[in-house]
Amino acid sequence: MKKFISLVLIFAVSAALIKVGTDAAFRHFPLKYGGYIERYSEEYGLDKFLVAGVIRAESGFDNTAHSGLARGLMQMTDKTADWVAEQLGIDYDYDMAEDPEINIRMGCYYLAHLMEKYENTDTALAAYNAGMGKVAEWLADENYSKNGRTLYDIPYRETRHYVKRVKFLTGIYKGLYGRSEAAWK
Length: 185
Known about the structure:
The protein is mainly α.
């Protein structure tokens, strides 16, 4: 029932923003770096609207964003960035986190890795936010996962809200930019 209500809310807000059609909606939900988002989403088999939602939730499209241990548009930690750079064969240094193309490429690769590993968007987003170690603990706990593969409850309030927010923003981006291929160039 909660999922149904969340979906109805997402679609209602999306429809309202589209109906309003004002510049204010587009200013509040900008789409920067659309070409990179589209390119690397496609390359790694991701929904470009989901990637836009992650970027909006993580950094508000500010490529210089820093929050504790994470940096850049997709807010990867140095440890995660090192691992992704190794997988992609990138000679990476931490200043590169603010380069929109590199950050989006690496973030999309990592998100695709999580989507493949967990085969569930909510669980993958929880891992993106809280880390794979925490998600492994939650999946092993019957209070949070009945099958050991999918979370049906997320114990961290921040992560639970993060997953909902990204899904909400994904719907907003789909509603605002779903019909405009020019916005992605």
